[in-house]
Every structure is written in C-alpha cells, then in structure tokens.
User: Fold DNA-binding transcriptional LysR family regulator from Pseudomonas oryzihabitans.
Amino acid sequence: MATLEHYRAFVATIEAGSLTAAAGRLGCSLQTVSRSLACLEEELGCELIRRTTRRLRPTPAGTLFYDRLKVALGAIDEARSEVLRGAAEIFGLLRVGASRHFAARFVVPAVTAFLAAYPETEVDLVLADERADLLAENLDVVIRIGDPLSMSLRGRPLVQLRRVLVATPAYLNRHGRPTVPADLAAHVCVVRTTGPERDLWPLTCQGRSLQVPVSGRLRCNEAAAANAAVVQGAGIGLAPLWQVRTELDQGLLELVLADYEPPPLPVQALWREHPTPTRIRAFVDLLQQRLAGERL
Assistant:
C-alpha cells in the first residue's frame, strides 16, 4: 500500500525534474525514490511519469494526480504545523483546584497525562474538601461538583455524576428491602454531615423531586469513611456511583430504591481568565475526554 513517503517522492520528482534531484531534496537515496514511484504506479495501475533517456515528464494521469496530491500534502503539512505550534504555546504553571477524593481518582490521571503531553508545563494541584476559591487560592481552574455554572466565571460542563442508594445484602436480608422512599423512615441510614443533603435525601419519583428525611446512629463528615461504614453493614448510604461501583460489582453492596434514584450531580471546570489561555483549554479538553470514558 502506498504511503505518505511514496506520495512525497512523486511530488518531489515532478517538481525537481529528476529522480536524483528528488532524492537530494528528500534526503534519501535514488533507489528509495525509484522504488516509491514504482510502488505507487503499481498500486494505481497506470503510468504516472514517462521516463526517457534525457528527462522525466508526467503523463496526463500523473499531472492530474500531482495537482490533487500537492493540495492534499500542503493541507497535511499545515495541519501538522498548527498542532506543533499549538503544543509549543502550552507552557508554564497551571494551578488546579479540586476535591480530594474525586481528584485522586480522576483529576490526577488527567494531570499526569497533561504533563506528559506538554513537557514545558508544571501543575500545582490544590486539593481540599471545602469549595475552592479561585481568587483566594490564586487558581487557574477549579473542578467543582454540584455547583451550577457561575455567571461571573468562565466554565464548561464536564460530566454528570450518577448517585445511588446502597446497602449490604446482609443488612437488607436482616431489615428488609425498601420499596418506596417512605420506607426509609424505618431503616438505619449512614448520614453524611457535609454537603447540602445531610439528613434530607433527594430522590425522584416519576420526574418529581422528593426530599426524604433519613436518620441513623452513625453520622460522618467524610465520604470514604461513610462508604466504608455502609460496606461494614452500618445501614443504607447515599453516594456517587463512582465511589461505590467496585463494591457493587463485587456484590458487597446492592442498589436500594433504584427506581427513585437521586438526580445526578454536575461536574464543571471553572476559570476566570478571558480569552481562555491555551494551557487551560488544553487541560480541560483532556480532562473532559478522560471523564467521558469513565463509568460515572
């Protein structure tokens, strides 16, 4: 099959007027150019260059092919230059803010891929459980979960995080499986003391939003610890799917009230600079692409 090098050899031969001159232009041997032309003509099934003892001359098919190929190769070279130029413009320090738990799972892999793709960059990753402040922390971009897009900031929606209710099979066998949201009143729930929901869980019923009161003997201000308590059988928990999907896949947890699943949480990237710096756009593009391939 003809390659890009074969096409370049053909164009160089037409423009240089000889195989020797084309080889010199391309920095390769005369035999390489000759083999490239022979391969190209064999694949196309026609003569592209008529060779005489004194000169080379394109055939009518060769002239047509050259005209089209010259434009195509020019477009390829221009596209390559644009990509290289864009990569060269991505340099310097990028300060990224995100929540600890989400960052460790999803933002850190994107950061390492970004650093590998753009060797002239550095990243400061600023992680906290509380909402990061762009201005106070001098951040370039923050990854926020649950907040709507701000009118005062630039931003882009990245993904929606599915939320689920879960419990261990042992707990459900012992206490019964809730069938409607009101059944939660008779169950022990592991309540997170951070975030807007706390002891009012947002479920949905036929498109309507419900605020269902829950209570339990264990309250926790940290997501990983709350999830661990649910896995230990402490009660029913509410968590983003990505935090408990391994335990669900392993059968350690079961979905509860799947028909009343809470609305998903939006994740967005926010920044304040306008126009958007190239390094921010490149990082957000990369993070969005990676998140799109996750089961969230």
Remarks:
- The longest strand covers residues 154-161.
